[in-house]
Structure formats: structure tokens, C-alpha cells
From TrEMBL:
PROSITE patterns tied to this protein: SOCS, WD_REPEATS_1, WD_REPEATS_2, WD_REPEATS_REGION
Gene Ontology terms: biological process: intracellular signal transduction; protein polyubiquitination
Repeat is among the record's keywords: yes
PANTHER family per record: WD REPEAT AND SOCS BOX-CONTAINING PROTEIN 1 (PTHR15622:SF12), WD40 REPEAT PROTEIN (PTHR15622)
Annotated SUPFAM superfamilies: SOCS box-like, WD40 repeat-like
WD repeat copies, ranges: 171-213, 215-256, 257-298, 319-353, 363-384
Pathway note: Protein modification; protein ubiquitination
Organism: Oryzias melastigma (Marine medaka)
Domain SOCS box: 382-427
UniProt KW keywords: Repeat, Ubl conjugation pathway, WD repeat
Name under which the protein is recorded: WD repeat and SOCS box-containing protein 1
Length: 427
């Protein structure tokens, strides 16, 4: 079996440009376990990058400092081109902290247990807590607050102030590993945690971390969750073949999407909220129109496509992570065949590939120019994302789909080809 269909020559695929890495400290032989970089994250405003480098440690690094290393220290000053850079193992040691006056500070956070998940959250003061009966809160989150949530092996969630590195809250209610965390994008500081205890829990950080609701329905571990861009829908996936969609106004299950043949481990909405990408151990990434529960595109990682029985087992092509680019036109996936693939939503073959051993997670930078990927040895690798100028049609489509569902678009009195384009049915 192959990683690409017969119609695709691997040598003809573009090679993503490697631009650097962050290396974790060398671990003693008896500490080889627990060093995985299970999660990487960029802050919403693009100011910080965070990753779990193993052994309880999370590193917070100003992203502008990294970019200066790309374009000024080692790059072409006229073009600002991204060039390879490296943060040595010595500089990744937990004793190192950069504290230049006037600059964002680098922090090393000791979370007390293995860190499985990370999420940045920023506050919009106009978004009030849903707990309207409480007039006094210990924390007053203003416009400039940037928080980092860390999910731990012992079921706890710790909330940190990114700018000071100070621990603010310690949330305790899960009974098993907190596998994923995600903040609502609307600035409300509503946090959703997904756990191996089979539940999703919703926390209101503007109400001092009060737990608002427990969502039950998964029959086994919950691996990942993701908010739609307008914060109205939550997607959750786990140790099972179903994709769960939740109404976040009523905290009720909307529906389950069926189509995968193995555990679903990663999910993310497109920036306009029209598409949902899910990654599974069945060797596929599926792109859904979640509004009408249909599959628009299947991105295969094993050819010929395996039977459902083979896909449901140990097939050597487990897809570990999927991420949507902010441009809405590209997707990245990490698979056990030691490759990262960059896809265009308009094609069924990868646009570019890159080699990566033992990859676990990936995330695009806020501007979509860089992809970060975490590995089992606690390090993070960076690649320059494929670049192209978006067509005016695509920009208009994204603007429209941010405010209209598929059903609303289909009700418009417009030509069928235009309707198909707006609903992404041209794949």
C-alpha cells in the first residue's frame, strides 16, 4: 500500500520549506516517557506561541521574537524571507527566562503533572458572564488580558496569565486526563474541556472558573473539541466513529455525523464556519458540510483506500491531527507515515509535503504563514505554509458564509453553479 494514489507522483509534490525548530531539554534515560509535545498553540492576537515540551513543563515564547530570528537575525533584511533558525537545547532549559525591558516575556510554566492540552483565551469586556446573579468576581478580565489554559494528566486545569506567568485558577472536576481545551472565539472566556472521563465540561472564567455545564453522550474517551467561529456550535470527537455537534446556547446535542471507520481524534472548523474537518485513525480526513450533515471531501492517506475493517484497526496511517489555515483554503494533517501534508480544499492530492517523525499535533500561526508541529520527543518543528493569493470569489464566499448557513444559501434565487460554489459543492 502507498501514501499517495497512482495518479500522484510523490517526487512531483512540492516540499514544504522547513524554517526552524524548538528543542526540548535532553531527558535522562529514566525519563524518556512523559516528554511528548501533545499540544502546540498560537495566541489569538499572534503575540505568543506555547507548547508542552514534556515533564510538566509548558514554554511560552513571544512569537515576534521568533519572527525577528527568522527575518532579521538570519534572513534577508529587504525581503523579510523566512530562513531556518534553531533554539538550542540549552536555551530550552527551564531555567532560562527572557526578561528584556519593554518586550513580551518568555515564561516557563511548571504545571505539576504531564500536560496534554493547551488553549489561549482573550477577553472582550462587553461579553458578560452568563452567571448574572453574581455581582462580584475575584478576577476582572479587561481588554488586555491574555490567558493560557493547561489540561493535565490528573484531570486538573490550570489557568495562567500569559504576560506575567502567574497562576490564576485551578479547576478541579474531571476524574481523568484533560485531553483537549478550547476557548469560545467570541471573547466570553467560556472554556470547554474534553476528557478521558467521557465528558465535556464548560467553564465560565469570567465567573471565577465556575463550571456551567457537563455535556454527556460520548461512550468513551473524548479526544478533541472545537468551536465554530461564531461560538454557537461545538464539535467534539473521541474514541468512537461519531462526530458530535452541540448547540452552545442550549447545551444540547444537535446531531451526530457518521462516516468514519475508526476513532476520531481531531477536529476544526474553517474560518468562515462553513466547513468542518475531522481526522481519524481510519487513514482519512473528512471535510463536512455540518449544516446538512454531508461529506464534501475525503482526504486519503493510504492507497488503495482500505476496507472499513482494515481502516478500523492498526493500519500504520493513523491521522493524528488536522488544522485549518486562516485563509480557509488550506488544511494540514499529521500521520503516522512520517509525513505532514498540506492540502488545498479544491484538490484531493496534497499540495506539499514535509518529513516529520513521530508527529502528534499541529497548528497554523494566526496569520497562516507558519505551521507548527509537536512530536513525541517534546520538540516543535516549523514549516512555511503554501502561499497563494486568494481569489476575489473566495474572499466574497467566506464573507457570505460567516453569516449564512448552507440552508440559507440554498434558499437564495441564484444560479445553481453559483450556489454550488458558495456551498463548497464544487469539490
Amino acid at each position: 500500500m502507498a501514501s499517495f494514489p497512482d495518479t500522484v507522483n510523490e517526487n512531483d509534490l512540492g516540499q514544504a520549506k522547513f524554517i526552524g525548530e524548538l528543542l526540548a531539554p535532553t531527558a535522562p534515560f529514566d525519563q524518556k516517557s512523559g516528554r511528548e509535545a501533545w499540544s502546540v498553540a498560537f495566541s489569538p492576537n499572534g503575540s505568543y506561541f506555547a507548547w508542552s515540551q514534556g515533564h510538566r513543563i509548558v514554554r511560552l515564547i513571544p512569537w515576534t521574537k521568533c519572527l525577528k530570528s527568522f527575518s532579521i537575525d538570519h534572513g534577508d533584511e529587504e525581503t523579510g524571507a523566512l530562513n531556518p533558525w534553531n533554539l538550542s537545547r540549552h536555551n530550552s532549559d527551564r531555567s532560562q527566562t527572557i526578561t528584556l525591558d519593554g518586550d513580551p516575556r518568555e515564561h516557563t510554566l511548571d504545571c505539576g503533572d504531564i500536560v496534554w492540552s493547551l488553549a489561549f483565551g482573550s477577553s472582550v469586556p462587553e461579553k458578560e458572564s452568563r452567571c448574572v446573579n453574581i455581582e462580584w468576581h475575584h478576577f476582572k478580565f479587561g481588554q488586555n488580558h491574555l490567558l493560557l489554559a493547561t489540561g493535565l494528566n490528573n484531570g486538573r486545569i490550570k489557568i495562567w496569565d500569559v504576560y506575567t506567568g502567574k497562576l490564576l485558577l485551578n479547576l478541579m472536576d474531571h476524574s481523568d486526563v484533560v485531553r483537549d481545551l478550547t476557548f469560545a472565539p467570541d471573547g466570553s472566556l467560556m472554556l470547554v474541556s474534553a476528557s478521558r472521563d467521557k465528558t465535556l465540561r464548560i467553564w465560565d472564567l469570567k465567573d471565577d472558573g465556575n463550571m456551567v455545564k457537563v455535556l454527556r453522550g460520548h461512550q468513551n474517551w473524548v479526544y478533541c473539541s472545537a468551536f465554530s467561529p461564531d461560538s454557537s456550535i461545538l464539535c467534539s470527537v473521541g474514541s468512537g466513529k461519531s462526530v458530535f455537534l452541540w448547540n452552545m446556547d442550549k447545551y444540547t446535542l444537535i446531531q451526530k455525523l457518521e462516516g468514519h471507520h475508526n476513532d476520531v481524534v481531531s477536529c476544526e472548523f474553517s474560518p468562515d464556519g462553513a466547513l468542518l474537518a475531522t481526522a481519524s485513525y481510519d487513514t482519512r480526513v473528512i471535510v463536512w458540510d455540518h449544516h446538512n450533515a454531508t461529506i464534501l471531501l475525503e482526504l486519503g492517506h493510504l492507497f488503495p483506500p482500505p476496507s472499513p475493517i482494515f481502516a478500523g484497526g492498526a493500519n500504520d496511517r493513523w491521522v493524528r491531527s488536522v488544522s485549518f489555515s486562516p485563509d480557509g483554503r488550506h488544511i494540514a494533517s499529521i500521520t503516522d507515515d512520517r509525513l505532514i501534508r498540506f492540502w488545498s480544499i479544491e484538490e484531493k492530492a496534497p499540495q506539499a509535503i514535509a518529513s516529520l517523525s513521530n508527529g502528534l499535533c499541529c497548528s497554523f500561526s494566526t496569520d497562516g504563514k507558519v505551521l507548527a508541529a509537536g512530536t513525541r520527543d517534546g520538540s516543535v518543528h516549523f514549516w512555511e505554509s503554501p502561499r497563494s493569493i486568494a481569489s476575489l470569489q473566495h474572499v466574497c464566499r467566506m464573507a457570505l458564509r460567516r453569516i449564512m448557513t448552507t440552508q440559507q444559501v440554498e434558499s437564495l434565487a441564484i444560479p445553481t453553479p453559483l450556489q454550488d460554489y458558495l456551498t463548497y459543492k464544487m469539490f
